[in-house]
Specification:
Layout (H helix, E strand, L loop, with lengths): L7 H4 L9 E2 L6 E6 L7 E3 L5 E4 L11 E5 L2 E4 L20 E6 L4 E6 L14 E6 L4 E7 L11 E7 L7 E6 L7 E6 L5 E4 L15 E2 L2 E2 L1 E2 L7 E2 L4 E6 L5 E6 L4 E6 H5 L5 H6 L2 E5 L6 E3 L5 E5 L4 E6 L2 E7 L6 E6 L4 E6 L19 E7 L9
Parallel strand pairs: 1-26
Antiparallel strand pairs: 2-29, 3-4, 4-5, 5-6, 7-8, 8-9, 9-10, 11-12, 12-13, 13-14, 15-16, 17-18, 19-20, 20-21, 21-22, 23-24, 24-25, 25-26, 27-28, 28-29
């Protein structure tokens, strides 16, 4: 029998956010000020190199993936790989939502191939591995139509390189038009499984209405009628031992955990997986999640400009600052800092009747947490 609270999806939006425990809050430090296109993802490699990415959401970024060098972001691994006119859809970046460094000195690029949240370009949704010793692409895994639906928007990814011949990747589908879900990819063969598609835990909470900067966040097109902005499975994190996957919808005040062994096993049904899901209770709505080597999970709070930590079954506020304007992606560095982008996503023109309220620069911020990343290798 499923351990999910009955009728959770219909009542979750009525549950108030928890009263967060407080501790001495970490100072927020500015790592870089970013001008031009709005970034979403950030990752800090074990050797300290910092990478960011820029999806095709209308800002026309000159490249999809970049490395932060001397305070400026430059195309990575080169301009050709970032050129949408180069070769076929598997040969270049189309619209990148996430970058994640692993424990084998590689940068993984998750390409949605879905500019503007459109239907993914056939053969374009993919995982691309770049060797950070040579800065060369060493593996491209195209995600097929059995896991990438016409409505799919692959969002974030976590790795466990100890599984199988070359490791496994866990990916969230944060569709705004169809079912959310999880995608599990064998890194040796490229074979993938779509899991929990349209399950209540991977879908937005009906009636979800976040309030940011005094206004309910909704689609507000110029001259059009406001409509709810509902985003499916987005944030993802993995436990320090690799046995548990955490995930949440962007449009939700809940997050969940599930055993990774069940997700990987093709003989296990979605019904069996669903029976093992744990609802970890109410939290502030967040975009990305992150994890550290001591088993803590971190989440942004985009309603209140805060960073929260989940440990021993409760959430604690560890940073709150007016500069935390939509904490998007979070990444733990080996230097003991939690890095995150603050990209003012909620101020985009589509939420304000065609008026772009974003004010540059965007920022890459960090706070001291004292723990390192989870590197399962």
């Amino acid at each position: 029998m499923s351990r999910i609270v009955p009728l959770l999806a219909s009542v979750a939006s009525l549950i108030a956010a928890p009263a967060f425990a407080q501790e001495r809050q970490a100072p927020v430090e500015v790592v870089a000020e970013l001008r031009g296109a709005m970034p979403t993802g950030v990752t800090v490699a074990p050797n300290g190199r910092i990478f960011l990415n820029y999806p095709q959401w209308g800002d026309k970024p000159p490249f999809a993936v970049g490395e932060l060098k001397d305070g400026k972001v430059v195309a990575f691994p080169d301009r050709v790989t970032n050129d949408a006119a180069t070769g076929g859809p598997a040969d270049h970046f189309i619209s990148v939502q996430s970058v994640v460094a692993d424990g084998a000195n590689r940068l993984w690029v998750l390409d949605t191939a879905a500019p503007g949240f459109a239907e993914p370009v056939a053969g374009g949704a993919k995982l691309v591995a770049i060797d950070l010793a040579t800065n060369k692409v060493v593996k491209t895994l195209v995600l097929g139509p059995d896991v990438v639906l016409p409505t799919t928007y692959v969002n974030d990814v976590r790795f466990d390189l100890r599984q199988g011949e070359a490791g496994v990747a866990y990916i969230t589908d944060s569709s705004i038009k169809g079912p959310g879900g999880l995608i599990v990819v064998d890194l040796a063969s490229g074979k993938a499984l779509r899991r929990l598609s349209a399950h209540p835990t991977t879908m937005p909470d009906p009636g979800f209405n976040p309030v940011i900067e005094g206004q309910t966040l909704m689609n507000r097109p110029a001259g059009g009628k406001p409509t709810p902005w509902l985003v499916a499975t987005d944030g993802i994190a993995i436990s320090a031992d690799g046995e548990t996957l955490y995930y949440c919808a962007l449009s939700s005040r809940h997050f969940y955990s599930v055993p990774t062994a069940l997700l990987r096993d093709p003989s296990v049904t979605d019904e069996q997986i669903a029976a093992a899901i744990k609802d970890l209770g109410p939290k502030a709505p967040s975009d990305g999640l992150a994890e550290d080597s001591e088993g803590n999970v971190y989440a942004g709070d985009y309603e209140h400009g805060a960073i929260r930590r989940f440990a021993a079954g409760k959430w604690t506020t560890i940073a709150k600052d007016p500069r935390i304007l939509w904490p998007d992606t979070l990444s733990v560095g080996t230097d003991g800092y939690l890095y995150f982008t603050a990209n003012q996503l909620q101020r985009q023109a589509g939420f304000h009747e065609g008026k772009d309220l974003r004010r540059q620069p965007y920022q890459l911020l960090r706070i001291r947490i004292g723990n390192g990343p989870v590197l399962l290798k």
